[in-house]
Structures are given as structure tokens and as C-alpha cells.
Amino acid sequence: MLTKSSARIFFLGGTIVTFVIFIGLSWHTLSRDVPQKTHEENITPAVIAGKHLWENNNCMGCHTIMGEGGYYAPELTKVVERRGEAYIKAVLSSKTPWQPRGRKMVAYGFNEKETQDLIAFLKWVGETDLNGFPPKPKYKSTLNTK
Amino acid sequence: MKYKSQKVAYWFFALAMLLLALQIVYGFIMGFARVGHDVLHDFIPFNTARAVHTNLLVVWLLTGFMGAAYYIIPEEAEEELVSVKLAYVQLISLAIVGVVAIAGYHFNYWEGRKFLEIPRPLDYLVVINVLLFLGLILATLFKSRKRTTTSLVLTMGLVFAALLYLPGMIWFDNQSVDAFFRWWVVHLWVEGVWELILGGILSFLLIKLTGVDREVIEKWLYVIVGLTFISGILGTGHHYYFIGTGKTWLIIGGIFSALEPLAFLGMVLFAVAMYRKGEKKHPNKLALSWTIGTAIVAFVGAGLLGFAHTLPQVNLYTHGTLVTAMHGHLAFWGAYAMIVLAFISYAMPNLTGRKLYETSRGSYAFWLSNIGMLGMTAAFGVAGVAQVYLERKMGMDFGDVQNEIKVHFVVLILCATMFATGITLYILEFIRYGRPTDEALEVPPQRAAIS
After folding, report:
1. Residue B153 and residue A17: Cα distance in Å, rounded?
2. Of A53, A100, B81, B410, which one's alpha carbon is 20 to 30 angstroms from that of A107?
3. Do A38 and B223 touch (CB under 8 A)?
4. A10, A57, A137 member nearest B108 (Cβ)
5. For A65, phi and psi rounded to 5 degrees?
6. Do residues A34 and B176 make contact, with C-beta atoms less than 8 angstroms apart?
7. What is the sign of the dihedral through the CA atoms of A70, A76, A77 and A78?
């Protein structure tokens, strides 16, 4: 029968082994995979300024990006490709709450530079390689034909 | 209770109750916004309500854990807390930082990083606060010669939880790296070190409530926390599928996170087995219901519902949908909210001397809140699955899908009302107990030390 000391060895041993593997994989990911898959060379000052705006206004509290966020408003990873820059600019600079289909967005009324920075950030996100996310709809051709 | 200083736990529990009540209010604000009644939009837009809702959860759970630690550590170490005064300072400063952070969210003062919205200047205050808390716990343990496995596992969980807060405080220009380290905090907390805290509290409760020998319970505690770490550390990979990292994580994350339910399965088998085995049944039936309930609901909510969408083939479609909210609600309720409520149910009669062991209000609180939460989980689940098919498979527009699934949020609000009724009864029962008193001391500590 299992003794308390062997149970302790199972706990400590298992933890240390998996932790070491985890650190190794993390190191590999951060030094090799991420810079390559996210095109780190394309992170311009505008992209960084856009990320600041993204965080300071908690956009993630409603929207999702890379699938992470609030599930209350649309996923924005591919928004530049889907909507185009002009539409995004109109939403971001609107002085009254944007409310497509009844659901309200806070009216941020961003200025020209802020709008450009956020678009730069969203464009950069849209070009990252996310292992196939967001998935392409299977039946797109039969819908949205209006 | 056996030591005077354990009384400080009561005030932590009281703060936890207050924050829990507020958390539910903000939950309702979001529920109503989703069915189209976003009347508070100008003052509390959805992102504010959401940040407040999730942060209050984290803070009230941590407050509950701290209260439980202040109760458990003196009893396990057989030593008064080194300083009760500093414990009150810690409580008050925790409440102040929490209130400032929550108020700030209403004025756009935050960091929009899911679950870690507390702005960085306040992060430093959180760190100081937690250091003070850990200092008091560790000093008490250090002073005593008695170190039990239960107290060590609990303390280890608390220390690691504090250390893991730090990676979340670093700024990264790359959104992928930012997300990568944000999960070091969030995942390694809830699917790692918090389970040590859960295991420690559960083990303490089972020792007290079932009368099974400590050696047997603590042996299984090691096995369970071992399973937690072996699956949970590499299981972090299930957050690294689609955020700009390599494909290795699809395999590693998939395999290890699929093993995560094992720890919860172990926990439920262990709790039920100890309950059956125990001959000396403690009269506190309510605390026992919450304790066994924690193990069962944690297995369903965190284990099974987590497994339901953890494989990368499935997660590709469910990632970033309401399916996550479905899992999140039952997992946090079962694994963490219920263990805190279990502990409060156990500790209150001992702190106040009023033996409200089997009241009907107490059992209504248990059943209404649990059935309400199960109903909410089902509503989120149906909404989430519908969203996956309509939006991700059929390619319908996000807003159209949200309008289609609105009806499930009506069900959600109804179930949430039931849940909130249960919690209200629980809080009323908490108030009925009154304040802790020295008259509730079992044996004077000097004599306890001799025997």
C-alpha cells in the first residue's frame, strides 16, 4: 500500500519534472516561435501605442482578440480584413455610442492619431499566425449573400 | 475554536460576504445588458461590469482563503497568531486597495488585461499586502514546532500564489508574450497553486468533520496535489493553442489538460471515501454538505466541463465563445466559492459559540445556490454551443448570433435569481451568528499546550 512518504515523493518529483519541462518549452516558445509567428519585426511604435490604447480602455472587457476577452462584442483578430480601415475608423472616432444591432459600444471619440495607432495594432494582430484561429466557417458560401 | 487569535478570521469572512454580494449585483448588470436592457451603459458599461465582476470574485476568494488560513494555521501549529493587530492592518489595507481598484474601473482607471485589470501602481500595494499576510502566517509557523502536512500544503499554496502574481506585472510590447505570461498568473493560480489551498482547506475540514486519521487524509492530499501539478503545469498549454505560439503546445496542452480532471476525480473519490469511512460524525451537517459538495461540483465544473472543450480540435471552435463562460462559472463556484463557503459554515459555530448546525435556512441556501448555478451553467452552455454552430461553423455575423441566443440569457437571469436567493439566505445566516467571542474558546490555550 502507498505510504505517506512515497506519496510525498510522487508530489515533489512530479512537480519538479513537469515544471522543468514547462520552463524549457516556454523558453523555446518565447525565443523562437513567438518572434517568428507574430512577425516581431513589424511591431512599430504605432503598434505599441495602439496596444497601450487597447489596454487603457479595456477593449478586452467586451471584445476578444486572439480569442481572449469578454465575449460581449465581436472577435477583432481579423477585423481589418473583415471590415476594412474606413469602417473601423468610423467606429473608433464616433462621438455617440456605436450600436450595431442594438448592442452599445462606449463612444470613445478617438482622434486621428489614436485611431491610426489602434488600426496599426489590429492590423499587426491580424497578420500573426495563430495556428488556424479564427477558423474559417464551413458554410460561408450559403449565407451572407445579401 | 482553540486560540483567541483565530477570531480575526471572522472579519475576513465578513468582507468576503460583502464582496460576494456586490459581485452578484454586477453579474445581474451584465445579464440584463445581454438581453438588451443596457440601461446603466453610461455609468457602468459592460467592460466595467465585467472587470468588477471577475475582480471581486478573485478578491473575495482570496479574502476567504486568508481568513481560512488565519483560522487553520494557529490550530494546526498549536500557537497563537504572532500579531492580531497586524492581521487587522492587513485586512483593512486589503479592503482599501480593493475598493480603490473597483472604484477606478468606473473611471477608466485600469489595465485591460483579462482578470488582471488592477492598474500597476496598485499592484505594488497588493504585493505589500500579501507579503504582510505571508509574514504573519510564516512567522506563526516558524515559532511553533508543530508543522503538519495540511498547514504546509496550505502555506505552500499561498506562497506560490504570491510569487506567481509577479509575471503579470511586467509590460510586454508583444500581445502574444503578454498573453503568455498573463496565463502564468491566471492558469497557474486556478489550475495549480489555488488547488493546493483548496486541498489544504479540504483536508483540514475532512480531518475535523469525519474523524478519519490525519495520516490517511494527508497521504491522499499529497497524491491529489501531485496529480494537480503533474497535469496542471503543462496543462497551461491549453491557453497557448491560438495566441501566436508554436504547434508543440497543441499536443502538450491537449494531453496534459485532458489529464486535469484526474486531480478533481481523485478529490471527489477521496472526500466521499473519507465521509463513508469516518465513524465520529461531526454534528455540523451543513459544513459537511458544503465540503462534499465542493469536491463533487469541482469535479463536474472544473474537471468534466473543462475537459469538454480542452482538446485543440474542439477548442479551435469554442475558444473565445460563451462555452468558456459556461465552464468558468461552474468551475469557480465548485472549486473555490464552495470551499470558502464550506469553511465559513464550519468555522462560524466555533467562532461565535452558536451551534446553528442544521437550520432549514442553511439547507435552502445550499440547495438554491447550487441548483441556481447549475441552471446558469446550462443556460451559458446552450447559448455557447448555439454560438459556436451559428457563428463559427455557419459564418453568421456576431451581432445576429447574439440576438438569436438572447433567450438563453433570460433563462440565465431566472436561474441567477434562484442562485442569488440562496446566497442571500447564506449571508442572512452568517449575520444571525453574530460576532466571535472568547466565550467560544474550547479549552484555554495554556492547558491545550500542556495536554
Report:
1. 19
2. B410
3. no
4. A57
5. -140, 135
6. yes
7. positive
Bigger pLDDT: A64 or A146?
A: A64
Q: What angle do CA A128, A130, A133 make, to 5 degrees?
A: 120
Give residue-wise pLDDT tens across range B26-35. Answer: 999 999 999 9
CB B166 within 8 Å of CB B120: no
- CB-CB: which of B113, B218, B227 is closest to A60? B113
How many angstroms away from the CA of A85 is the closest CA of chain B?
18
| pLDDT reported for residue B268 | 95
Task: Please indicate whether, in this complex, the C-beta atoms of A135 and B248 are within 8 angstroms of each other.
Answer: no
Determine the residue of chain A that is closest to B44 in CA distance. Answer: A106
| CB-based contact B90:B8 (threshold 8 Å) | no
Give A99-109 pLDDT, tens digit per residue.
Answer: 988 899 999 99
C-alpha B316, offset from chain centre: 27
Cis omega (within 30 of 0) for bond into A134? yes
- Distance of alpha carbon A105 from its chain centroid, rounded? 18
Residue A86, phi-psi category: left (phi > 0), alpha (psi -120 to 50), beta (remainder)? alpha
DSSP three-state, residue A111: coil
- Kind of pairing, strands A64-65 and A68-69? antiparallel
**Section B3-7 average pLDDT:** 96
Question: Of A6, A133, A142, A144, which to mutate for an interface test with B (greatest number of B Cβ within 10 Å)?
Answer: A133
In 3D, which of B377, B363, B219 has the Cα closest to residue B293?
B363
Closest CA to B23 of B97, B98, B96, B88: B98
Contacts of B202 (CB under 8 A, 6+ apart): B221, B267, B271, B291, B294, B295, B339
Residue A74 dihedral angles phi and psi, to the nearest 5°: -55, 155
Judged by DSSP in three states, A79 sits in helix
Listed in sequence order, the residues at least 6 apart from B333 whose beta carbon sits closer than 8 Å to its beta carbon are B297, B301, B373
Beta-carbon separation of B34 and A106 below 8 A: no
CA angle, corner B326, sides to B245 and B164, nearest 5? 50
Chains A and B form CB pairs within 8 A to the count of 220
Distance CA A52, CA A58 (A): 10
On chain B, the residues whose CB falls within 8 A of the CB of A82 are: none
Contact: A131, B241; criterion CB under 8 Å = yes
Strand, helix or coil for residue A69? strand
Contacts of A19 (CB under 8 A, 6+ apart): B229, B233
- In sequence order, the β-bridge partners of residue A69 are A64
pLDDT of residue B442: 85
DSSP B7: G
Given a contact cutoff of 8 angstroms between Cβ atoms, the answer to whether B278 and B210 are in contact is yes
Per-residue pLDDT at B399 exceeds 90: yes
Q: Rounded CA gap, B241 and B192, in Å?
A: 19
Chain A contact probe: residue of B176, B229, B323, B327 with most A CBs at under 10 A: B176
Comparing CB atoms, the residue among A11, A59, A130 nearest residue B112 is A59
3-state DSSP call for residue A65? strand
